[in-house]
Prior knowledge:
This protein is α/β, with parallel strands linked by helices. The chain is built from twelve helices and 16 strands.
Amino acid sequence: xxxxxxxxxxxxxxxxxxxxxxxxxxxxxxxxxxxxxxxxxxxxxxxxxxxxxxxxxxxxxxxxxxxxxxxxxxxxxxxxxxxxxxxxxxxxxxxxxxxxxxxxxxxxxxxxxxxxxxxxxxxxxxxxxxxxxxxxxxxxxxxxxxxxxxxxxxxxxxxxxxxxxxxxxxxxxxxxxxxxxxxxxxxxxxxxxxxxxxxxxxxxxxxxxxxxxxxxxxxxxxxxxxxxxxxxxxxxxxxxxxxxxxxxxxxxxxxxxxxxxxxxxxxxxxxxxxxxxxxxxxxxxxxxxxxxxxxxxxxxxxxxxxxxxxxxxxxxxxxxxxxxxxxxxxxxxxxxxxxxxxxxxxxxxxxxxxxxxxxxxxxxxxxxxxxxxxxxxxxxxxxxxxxxxxxxxxxxxxxxxxxxxxxxxxxxxxxxxxxxxxxxxxxxxxxxxxxxxxxxxxxxxxxxxxxxxxxxxxxxxxx
Length: 463
Ligand code: GDP
Protein backbone atom coordinates (compact mmCIF):
# COMPACT_ATOMS: atom_id res chain seq x y z
CA UNK A 1 0.00 0.00 0.00
CA UNK A 2 1.07 3.55 -0.69
CA UNK A 3 2.17 6.07 1.92
CA UNK A 4 -0.95 8.06 1.09
CA UNK A 5 -3.16 5.07 1.84
CA UNK A 6 -1.49 4.36 5.19
CA UNK A 7 -1.72 7.99 6.24
CA UNK A 8 -5.37 8.13 5.35
CA UNK A 9 -6.14 4.91 7.18
CA UNK A 10 -4.51 6.28 10.33
CA UNK A 11 -6.33 9.58 9.96
CA UNK A 12 -9.71 7.80 9.85
CA UNK A 13 -8.77 5.93 13.03
CA UNK A 14 -7.57 9.01 14.81
CA UNK A 15 -10.50 11.20 13.71
CA UNK A 16 -13.00 8.60 14.91
CA UNK A 17 -11.41 8.88 18.36
CA UNK A 18 -11.41 12.67 18.06
CA UNK A 19 -15.11 12.61 17.33
CA UNK A 20 -15.73 10.65 20.52
CA UNK A 21 -13.57 13.07 22.57
CA UNK A 22 -15.64 15.92 21.24
CA UNK A 23 -19.06 14.31 21.87
CA UNK A 24 -17.99 13.16 25.32
CA UNK A 25 -16.74 16.59 26.26
CA UNK A 26 -19.76 18.51 24.99
CA UNK A 27 -22.32 16.14 26.54
CA UNK A 28 -20.48 16.23 29.86
CA UNK A 29 -20.62 20.03 29.81
CA UNK A 30 -24.32 19.83 29.08
CA UNK A 31 -24.83 17.39 31.94
CA UNK A 32 -23.02 19.67 34.37
CA UNK A 33 -25.07 22.61 33.18
CA UNK A 34 -21.96 24.40 31.83
CA UNK A 35 -23.72 24.92 28.50
CA UNK A 36 -27.34 25.47 27.57
CA UNK A 37 -29.52 23.29 25.32
CA UNK A 38 -29.63 26.21 22.91
CA UNK A 39 -26.03 25.34 22.05
CA UNK A 40 -27.06 21.88 20.81
CA UNK A 41 -27.76 22.74 17.15
CA UNK A 42 -24.27 24.12 16.80
CA UNK A 43 -22.74 21.08 18.50
CA UNK A 44 -24.74 18.80 16.20
CA UNK A 45 -23.41 20.79 13.26
CA UNK A 46 -19.87 20.17 14.38
CA UNK A 47 -20.53 16.46 14.90
CA UNK A 48 -22.00 16.23 11.42
CA UNK A 49 -18.96 17.93 9.95
CA UNK A 50 -16.62 15.53 11.73
CA UNK A 51 -18.71 12.57 10.58
CA UNK A 52 -18.65 13.79 6.96
CA UNK A 53 -14.91 14.18 7.14
CA UNK A 54 -14.41 10.63 8.38
CA UNK A 55 -16.78 9.16 5.80
CA UNK A 56 -15.19 11.15 3.03
CA UNK A 57 -11.76 9.83 4.03
CA UNK A 58 -13.13 6.29 4.25
CA UNK A 59 -14.50 6.54 0.73
CA UNK A 60 -11.09 7.51 -0.58
CA UNK A 61 -9.48 4.38 0.87
CA UNK A 62 -10.52 1.98 -1.92
CA UNK A 63 -9.30 4.46 -4.53
CA UNK A 64 -5.86 4.46 -2.92
CA UNK A 65 -5.43 0.83 -1.92
CA UNK A 66 -4.35 -0.14 -5.40
CA UNK A 67 -7.24 -2.50 -6.05
CA UNK A 68 -9.76 -0.15 -7.63
CA UNK A 69 -8.83 -1.06 -11.22
CA UNK A 70 -9.09 -4.69 -10.25
CA UNK A 71 -12.56 -4.15 -8.71
CA UNK A 72 -13.70 -2.35 -11.83
CA UNK A 73 -12.45 -5.14 -14.08
CA UNK A 74 -13.86 -7.86 -11.86
CA UNK A 75 -17.30 -6.19 -11.71
CA UNK A 76 -17.35 -6.03 -15.51
CA UNK A 77 -16.20 -9.65 -15.82
CA UNK A 78 -18.79 -11.06 -13.44
CA UNK A 79 -21.54 -9.01 -15.03
CA UNK A 80 -20.52 -10.26 -18.49
CA UNK A 81 -20.54 -13.81 -17.20
CA UNK A 82 -24.07 -13.50 -15.81
CA UNK A 83 -25.32 -11.86 -19.00
CA UNK A 84 -23.73 -14.64 -21.08
CA UNK A 85 -25.37 -17.30 -18.97
CA UNK A 86 -28.77 -15.63 -19.26
CA UNK A 87 -28.35 -15.39 -23.02
CA UNK A 88 -27.43 -19.06 -23.16
CA UNK A 89 -30.43 -20.00 -21.03
CA UNK A 90 -32.79 -17.86 -23.06
CA UNK A 91 -31.59 -19.12 -26.44
CA UNK A 92 -31.63 -22.91 -26.32
CA UNK A 93 -30.35 -24.61 -29.46
CA UNK A 94 -33.65 -26.42 -29.81
CA UNK A 95 -36.51 -24.32 -28.55
CA UNK A 96 -39.17 -26.97 -29.11
CA UNK A 97 -37.43 -29.44 -26.78
CA UNK A 98 -36.32 -26.93 -24.17
CA UNK A 99 -37.74 -26.96 -20.67
CA UNK A 100 -39.62 -23.74 -20.05
CA UNK A 101 -41.23 -21.55 -17.47
CA UNK A 102 -44.06 -19.25 -18.48
CA UNK A 103 -44.81 -15.95 -16.81
CA UNK A 104 -47.63 -13.58 -17.52
CA UNK A 105 -46.94 -9.89 -17.41
CA UNK A 106 -50.50 -9.28 -16.29
CA UNK A 107 -49.72 -8.51 -12.68
CA UNK A 108 -52.11 -5.69 -11.84
CA UNK A 109 -49.57 -3.22 -10.58
CA UNK A 110 -47.14 -0.52 -11.67
CA UNK A 111 -44.09 -0.92 -13.87
CA UNK A 112 -41.61 -1.30 -11.01
CA UNK A 113 -43.73 -4.08 -9.58
CA UNK A 114 -44.03 -5.75 -12.98
CA UNK A 115 -40.27 -5.55 -13.53
CA UNK A 116 -39.76 -7.29 -10.22
CA UNK A 117 -42.23 -9.93 -11.35
CA UNK A 118 -40.05 -10.58 -14.42
CA UNK A 119 -36.93 -10.63 -12.23
CA UNK A 120 -38.53 -13.29 -10.02
CA UNK A 121 -39.44 -15.34 -13.11
CA UNK A 122 -35.94 -15.01 -14.58
CA UNK A 123 -34.31 -16.06 -11.32
CA UNK A 124 -36.65 -19.05 -11.23
CA UNK A 125 -35.67 -19.83 -14.83
CA UNK A 126 -31.95 -19.54 -14.02
CA UNK A 127 -32.28 -21.72 -10.91
CA UNK A 128 -34.22 -24.48 -12.67
CA UNK A 129 -32.53 -24.26 -16.08
CA UNK A 130 -35.72 -23.42 -17.89
CA UNK A 131 -36.10 -20.88 -20.65
CA UNK A 132 -38.39 -18.03 -19.60
CA UNK A 133 -41.33 -17.33 -21.89
CA UNK A 134 -42.95 -14.00 -21.20
CA UNK A 135 -46.62 -13.63 -22.10
CA UNK A 136 -47.44 -9.98 -22.42
CA UNK A 137 -50.42 -9.70 -24.76
CA UNK A 138 -52.76 -7.03 -23.48
CA UNK A 139 -50.03 -5.54 -21.31
CA UNK A 140 -51.30 -2.41 -19.59
CA UNK A 141 -48.36 -0.30 -20.79
CA UNK A 142 -48.67 -1.46 -24.41
CA UNK A 143 -51.50 -3.76 -25.39
CA UNK A 144 -49.42 -5.20 -28.21
CA UNK A 145 -46.94 -6.52 -25.70
CA UNK A 146 -43.52 -6.15 -24.12
CA UNK A 147 -41.77 -6.81 -27.44
CA UNK A 148 -43.13 -3.60 -28.92
CA UNK A 149 -41.22 -1.52 -26.42
CA UNK A 150 -38.26 -3.67 -25.40
CA UNK A 151 -36.18 -6.26 -27.20
CA UNK A 152 -37.63 -9.71 -26.59
CA UNK A 153 -35.93 -11.64 -23.79
CA UNK A 154 -34.97 -14.32 -26.30
CA UNK A 155 -33.83 -14.15 -29.91
CA UNK A 156 -34.90 -17.66 -30.76
CA UNK A 157 -37.39 -19.01 -28.24
CA UNK A 158 -40.55 -17.05 -27.56
CA UNK A 159 -43.21 -19.73 -27.38
CA UNK A 160 -43.96 -22.97 -25.57
CA UNK A 161 -45.60 -24.27 -28.79
CA UNK A 162 -48.65 -26.26 -27.75
CA UNK A 163 -46.96 -28.17 -24.96
CA UNK A 164 -49.06 -28.78 -21.90
CA UNK A 165 -48.56 -26.08 -19.28
CA UNK A 166 -48.58 -27.19 -15.66
CA UNK A 167 -48.93 -24.71 -12.85
CA UNK A 168 -45.90 -24.80 -10.56
CA UNK A 169 -45.50 -26.40 -7.99
CA UNK A 170 -46.46 -29.84 -9.33
CA UNK A 171 -45.76 -33.26 -7.86
CA UNK A 172 -43.56 -34.11 -10.85
CA UNK A 173 -41.15 -32.15 -13.03
CA UNK A 174 -43.14 -31.10 -16.12
CA UNK A 175 -41.51 -29.80 -19.28
CA UNK A 176 -43.40 -26.50 -19.16
CA UNK A 177 -44.52 -24.82 -15.97
CA UNK A 178 -46.29 -21.55 -15.34
CA UNK A 179 -45.56 -19.50 -12.26
CA UNK A 180 -47.92 -17.97 -9.71
CA UNK A 181 -47.18 -14.47 -8.40
CA UNK A 182 -44.40 -14.50 -5.84
CA UNK A 183 -46.76 -13.26 -3.11
CA UNK A 184 -48.93 -16.36 -3.39
CA UNK A 185 -46.29 -19.10 -3.15
CA UNK A 186 -46.73 -21.06 0.07
CA UNK A 187 -43.40 -22.95 0.04
CA UNK A 188 -40.83 -20.47 -1.17
CA UNK A 189 -37.83 -21.96 -2.96
CA UNK A 190 -34.54 -21.09 -1.28
CA UNK A 191 -33.14 -19.59 -4.48
CA UNK A 192 -35.50 -16.60 -4.37
CA UNK A 193 -34.04 -13.23 -3.31
CA UNK A 194 -32.16 -12.22 -1.43
CA UNK A 195 -30.12 -15.37 -2.22
CA UNK A 196 -27.25 -15.17 -4.68
CA UNK A 197 -25.41 -17.95 -6.56
CA UNK A 198 -22.72 -19.69 -4.53
CA UNK A 199 -20.34 -19.91 -7.47
CA UNK A 200 -20.36 -16.12 -7.94
CA UNK A 201 -20.81 -14.94 -4.37
CA UNK A 202 -17.15 -14.91 -3.44
CA UNK A 203 -16.37 -12.84 -6.48
CA UNK A 204 -19.24 -10.37 -6.03
CA UNK A 205 -18.57 -9.62 -2.36
CA UNK A 206 -15.08 -8.50 -3.24
CA UNK A 207 -16.28 -5.54 -5.28
CA UNK A 208 -19.84 -4.88 -4.12
CA UNK A 209 -21.27 -4.13 -0.69
CA UNK A 210 -24.81 -5.34 -1.47
CA UNK A 211 -24.58 -8.47 -3.64
CA UNK A 212 -28.33 -9.26 -3.50
CA UNK A 213 -29.37 -6.04 -5.20
CA UNK A 214 -26.42 -6.37 -7.60
CA UNK A 215 -27.72 -9.79 -8.63
CA UNK A 216 -31.25 -8.45 -9.11
CA UNK A 217 -29.79 -5.56 -11.09
CA UNK A 218 -28.18 -8.09 -13.43
CA UNK A 219 -31.60 -9.56 -14.19
CA UNK A 220 -32.91 -6.08 -14.99
CA UNK A 221 -29.89 -5.41 -17.16
CA UNK A 222 -30.74 -8.49 -19.22
CA UNK A 223 -34.41 -7.69 -19.76
CA UNK A 224 -34.48 -3.89 -19.90
CA UNK A 225 -33.30 -3.14 -23.42
CA UNK A 226 -35.49 -0.50 -25.06
CA UNK A 227 -36.07 -0.84 -28.79
CA UNK A 228 -34.84 1.99 -31.06
CA UNK A 229 -38.14 3.92 -31.12
CA UNK A 230 -38.39 3.90 -27.33
CA UNK A 231 -34.69 4.61 -26.92
CA UNK A 232 -35.04 7.59 -29.25
CA UNK A 233 -37.96 8.97 -27.25
CA UNK A 234 -35.97 8.54 -24.04
CA UNK A 235 -32.85 10.14 -25.51
CA UNK A 236 -34.78 13.13 -26.81
CA UNK A 237 -36.32 13.87 -23.41
CA UNK A 238 -32.98 13.42 -21.68
CA UNK A 239 -31.20 15.66 -24.18
CA UNK A 240 -33.44 18.56 -23.11
CA UNK A 241 -32.44 18.21 -19.48
CA UNK A 242 -28.77 19.20 -19.49
CA UNK A 243 -27.74 16.32 -17.30
CA UNK A 244 -24.40 17.06 -15.65
CA UNK A 245 -22.54 15.64 -12.72
CA UNK A 246 -22.35 15.89 -9.81
CA UNK A 247 -26.05 15.23 -9.45
CA UNK A 248 -28.26 13.73 -6.78
CA UNK A 249 -31.39 11.84 -7.80
CA UNK A 250 -34.46 12.30 -5.64
CA UNK A 251 -37.50 10.11 -6.00
CA UNK A 252 -40.65 11.31 -4.31
CA UNK A 253 -43.48 8.80 -4.41
CA UNK A 254 -46.85 10.27 -3.56
CA UNK A 255 -50.41 10.03 -4.96
CA UNK A 256 -51.96 6.57 -4.46
CA UNK A 257 -49.06 5.30 -2.35
CA UNK A 258 -49.42 7.78 0.49
CA UNK A 259 -51.55 6.60 3.36
CA UNK A 260 -51.99 3.14 1.89
CA UNK A 261 -48.50 1.68 1.60
CA UNK A 262 -46.23 4.50 2.72
CA UNK A 263 -46.17 7.66 4.78
CA UNK A 264 -46.05 11.17 3.37
CA UNK A 265 -42.59 12.73 3.37
CA UNK A 266 -42.08 16.43 2.78
CA UNK A 267 -39.48 17.74 0.33
CA UNK A 268 -37.47 18.96 3.34
CA UNK A 269 -36.94 15.41 4.56
CA UNK A 270 -35.35 14.46 1.24
CA UNK A 271 -33.33 17.67 0.99
CA UNK A 272 -31.60 17.09 4.34
CA UNK A 273 -29.82 14.16 2.74
CA UNK A 274 -29.13 15.98 -0.49
CA UNK A 275 -27.51 18.77 1.50
CA UNK A 276 -25.45 16.28 3.51
CA UNK A 277 -24.29 14.62 0.31
CA UNK A 278 -23.10 17.91 -1.13
CA UNK A 279 -21.58 19.15 2.13
CA UNK A 280 -19.50 16.02 2.23
CA UNK A 281 -18.57 16.21 -1.43
CA UNK A 282 -17.39 19.77 -0.94
CA UNK A 283 -14.74 18.58 1.49
CA UNK A 284 -12.86 17.10 -1.45
CA UNK A 285 -13.97 18.98 -4.53
CA UNK A 286 -15.33 22.27 -5.66
CA UNK A 287 -19.06 22.05 -6.33
CA UNK A 288 -20.25 24.69 -8.76
CA UNK A 289 -23.92 23.90 -8.76
CA UNK A 290 -25.88 21.68 -6.41
CA UNK A 291 -27.85 19.76 -9.01
CA UNK A 292 -30.82 17.52 -8.23
CA UNK A 293 -32.76 15.30 -10.59
CA UNK A 294 -36.28 15.19 -9.23
CA UNK A 295 -38.56 12.32 -10.20
CA UNK A 296 -42.07 12.06 -8.85
CA UNK A 297 -45.63 11.05 -9.57
CA UNK A 298 -46.72 14.28 -7.90
CA UNK A 299 -46.88 17.07 -10.47
CA UNK A 300 -46.48 19.82 -7.85
CA UNK A 301 -43.24 18.66 -6.32
CA UNK A 302 -40.87 20.17 -8.86
CA UNK A 303 -42.35 23.67 -8.56
CA UNK A 304 -42.39 23.46 -4.76
CA UNK A 305 -38.78 22.33 -4.64
CA UNK A 306 -37.62 25.11 -6.96
CA UNK A 307 -39.30 27.84 -4.95
CA UNK A 308 -38.23 26.42 -1.60
CA UNK A 309 -34.62 25.64 -2.48
CA UNK A 310 -33.38 28.42 -4.76
CA UNK A 311 -29.75 27.44 -4.08
CA UNK A 312 -30.25 24.13 -5.83
CA UNK A 313 -30.74 23.48 -9.51
CA UNK A 314 -33.59 21.06 -10.11
CA UNK A 315 -33.75 19.01 -13.27
CA UNK A 316 -36.90 17.21 -14.18
CA UNK A 317 -39.86 17.27 -16.46
CA UNK A 318 -43.14 18.35 -14.83
CA UNK A 319 -45.11 16.80 -17.67
CA UNK A 320 -43.68 13.37 -16.79
CA UNK A 321 -44.89 13.71 -13.22
CA UNK A 322 -48.21 14.99 -14.45
CA UNK A 323 -48.72 11.99 -16.70
CA UNK A 324 -47.70 9.71 -13.86
CA UNK A 325 -50.10 11.42 -11.49
CA UNK A 326 -53.20 11.17 -13.63
CA UNK A 327 -55.31 8.08 -13.61
CA UNK A 328 -54.00 7.09 -16.99
CA UNK A 329 -50.70 6.10 -15.44
CA UNK A 330 -50.50 2.90 -17.38
CA UNK A 331 -49.96 4.10 -20.92
CA UNK A 332 -47.07 4.04 -23.39
CA UNK A 333 -46.59 7.75 -22.69
CA UNK A 334 -46.30 7.26 -18.95
CA UNK A 335 -43.89 4.39 -19.59
CA UNK A 336 -41.55 6.63 -21.59
CA UNK A 337 -41.56 9.18 -18.78
CA UNK A 338 -40.93 6.55 -16.17
CA UNK A 339 -38.03 5.08 -18.13
CA UNK A 340 -36.52 8.55 -18.38
CA UNK A 341 -36.90 9.02 -14.64
CA UNK A 342 -35.43 5.61 -13.86
CA UNK A 343 -32.51 6.16 -16.19
CA UNK A 344 -31.72 9.57 -14.71
CA UNK A 345 -32.00 8.34 -11.12
CA UNK A 346 -29.73 5.39 -11.90
CA UNK A 347 -27.16 7.72 -13.53
CA UNK A 348 -27.06 10.01 -10.52
CA UNK A 349 -24.18 9.99 -8.06
CA UNK A 350 -26.49 9.43 -5.13
CA UNK A 351 -30.20 8.66 -4.69
CA UNK A 352 -32.53 9.86 -1.95
CA UNK A 353 -35.81 7.95 -2.04
CA UNK A 354 -38.18 5.68 -0.17
CA UNK A 355 -37.48 1.98 -0.63
CA UNK A 356 -41.15 1.29 0.11
CA UNK A 357 -41.55 2.23 -3.57
CA UNK A 358 -40.67 -0.31 -6.22
CA UNK A 359 -39.63 2.57 -8.47
CA UNK A 360 -37.09 3.64 -5.86
CA UNK A 361 -35.76 0.12 -5.55
CA UNK A 362 -35.56 -0.42 -9.31
CA UNK A 363 -33.59 2.82 -9.63
CA UNK A 364 -31.10 1.54 -7.05
CA UNK A 365 -30.85 -1.89 -8.69
CA UNK A 366 -30.15 -0.22 -12.02
CA UNK A 367 -27.56 1.98 -10.32
CA UNK A 368 -25.85 -1.19 -9.10
CA UNK A 369 -25.29 -2.20 -12.72
CA UNK A 370 -23.93 1.22 -13.65
CA UNK A 371 -20.99 1.21 -11.30
CA UNK A 372 -18.76 -1.13 -9.34
CA UNK A 373 -20.57 -0.60 -6.05
CA UNK A 374 -23.60 1.60 -5.39
CA UNK A 375 -24.26 0.18 -1.94
CA UNK A 376 -23.20 3.45 -0.27
CA UNK A 377 -24.83 5.72 -2.80
CA UNK A 378 -28.38 6.01 -1.55
CA UNK A 379 -30.49 7.07 1.35
CA UNK A 380 -33.95 5.57 1.89
CA UNK A 381 -36.24 7.57 4.14
CA UNK A 382 -38.19 4.49 5.12
CA UNK A 383 -37.51 0.81 4.42
CA UNK A 384 -34.22 -0.98 4.12
CA UNK A 385 -33.67 -2.62 0.75
CA UNK A 386 -35.89 -5.61 0.05
CA UNK A 387 -37.39 -7.64 -2.76
CA UNK A 388 -41.15 -8.06 -2.53
CA UNK A 389 -41.91 -11.66 -1.58
CA UNK A 390 -38.32 -12.38 -0.59
CA UNK A 391 -37.24 -15.11 1.83
CA UNK A 392 -36.40 -14.12 5.40
CA UNK A 393 -33.79 -11.38 5.59
CA UNK A 394 -31.48 -11.99 8.52
CA UNK A 395 -28.62 -10.24 10.18
CA UNK A 396 -25.93 -12.07 12.14
CA UNK A 397 -24.94 -10.82 15.58
CA UNK A 398 -21.24 -10.05 15.61
CA UNK A 399 -21.09 -9.60 19.40
CA UNK A 400 -23.22 -10.22 22.45
CA UNK A 401 -25.83 -7.74 23.51
CA UNK A 402 -27.50 -7.23 26.88
CA UNK A 403 -30.64 -5.09 26.64
CA UNK A 404 -30.48 -1.65 28.25
CA UNK A 405 -34.23 -1.16 28.12
CA UNK A 406 -37.22 -3.48 27.95
CA UNK A 407 -37.68 -2.54 24.30
CA UNK A 408 -34.33 -4.08 23.36
CA UNK A 409 -33.68 -7.78 22.95
CA UNK A 410 -30.69 -9.86 24.02
CA UNK A 411 -28.48 -11.77 21.60
CA UNK A 412 -25.21 -13.65 21.46
CA UNK A 413 -22.52 -13.43 18.84
CA UNK A 414 -23.55 -15.73 16.01
CA UNK A 415 -27.32 -15.47 16.56
CA UNK A 416 -29.42 -14.98 13.46
CA UNK A 417 -31.83 -12.08 13.71
CA UNK A 418 -34.71 -11.69 11.28
CA UNK A 419 -34.89 -7.98 10.52
CA UNK A 420 -38.03 -5.95 10.01
CA UNK A 421 -36.34 -2.63 9.46
CA UNK A 422 -33.89 0.01 10.55
CA UNK A 423 -35.17 3.00 12.48
CA UNK A 424 -32.17 5.09 11.34
CA UNK A 425 -31.48 6.12 14.91
CA UNK A 426 -28.88 3.49 15.71
CA UNK A 427 -31.48 0.80 16.25
CA UNK A 428 -33.48 -1.56 14.12
CA UNK A 429 -36.21 -4.01 14.85
CA UNK A 430 -35.82 -7.76 14.63
CA UNK A 431 -36.53 -11.21 15.99
CA UNK A 432 -33.80 -13.34 17.47
CA UNK A 433 -34.24 -16.70 15.73
CA UNK A 434 -32.76 -18.56 18.71
CA UNK A 435 -34.91 -17.00 21.44
CA UNK A 436 -37.87 -15.87 19.35
CA UNK A 437 -37.78 -12.51 21.11
CA UNK A 438 -38.74 -9.48 19.07
CA UNK A 439 -37.57 -5.95 19.78
CA UNK A 440 -34.96 -3.28 19.19
CA UNK A 441 -31.42 -4.22 18.23
CA UNK A 442 -28.36 -1.95 18.10
CA UNK A 443 -27.67 -2.21 14.36
CA UNK A 444 -23.89 -1.88 14.70
CA UNK A 445 -23.65 -5.13 16.66
CA UNK A 446 -25.06 -7.06 13.69
CA UNK A 447 -23.99 -7.60 10.10
CA UNK A 448 -25.95 -8.53 7.03
CA UNK A 449 -26.27 -12.29 6.55
CA UNK A 450 -25.84 -13.13 2.90
CA UNK A 451 -27.67 -16.26 1.71
CA UNK A 452 -25.92 -18.39 -0.89
CA UNK A 453 -27.71 -20.90 -3.06
CA UNK A 454 -26.08 -23.49 -5.35
CA UNK A 455 -27.58 -22.25 -8.63
CA UNK A 456 -26.53 -24.17 -11.77
CA UNK A 457 -23.11 -23.01 -13.00
CA UNK A 458 -23.77 -22.91 -16.73
CA UNK A 459 -20.35 -24.25 -17.67
CA UNK A 460 -21.42 -24.52 -21.33
CA UNK A 461 -22.41 -20.87 -21.51
CA UNK A 462 -18.77 -19.80 -21.74
CA UNK A 463 -18.00 -21.78 -24.85
P1 GDP B 1 -44.69 1.60 -6.21
O1 GDP B 1 -46.18 1.63 -6.22
O2 GDP B 1 -44.07 2.94 -5.99
O3 GDP B 1 -44.16 0.56 -5.26
O4 GDP B 1 -44.15 1.17 -7.65
P2 GDP B 1 -44.92 0.59 -8.92
O5 GDP B 1 -43.97 0.64 -10.07
O6 GDP B 1 -45.52 -0.70 -8.59
O7 GDP B 1 -46.12 1.58 -9.24
C1 GDP B 1 -45.95 2.95 -9.26
C2 GDP B 1 -46.22 3.55 -10.62
O8 GDP B 1 -46.39 4.96 -10.46
C3 GDP B 1 -45.03 3.41 -11.54
O9 GDP B 1 -44.98 2.23 -12.26
C4 GDP B 1 -45.19 4.65 -12.40
O10 GDP B 1 -46.14 4.43 -13.41
C5 GDP B 1 -45.71 5.68 -11.43
N1 GDP B 1 -44.57 6.43 -10.80
C6 GDP B 1 -44.19 6.38 -9.50
N2 GDP B 1 -43.13 7.19 -9.28
C7 GDP B 1 -42.84 7.77 -10.46
C8 GDP B 1 -41.84 8.70 -10.89
O11 GDP B 1 -41.00 9.17 -10.14
N3 GDP B 1 -41.85 9.05 -12.19
C9 GDP B 1 -42.77 8.55 -13.08
N4 GDP B 1 -42.69 8.94 -14.35
N5 GDP B 1 -43.72 7.68 -12.72
C10 GDP B 1 -43.77 7.28 -11.43
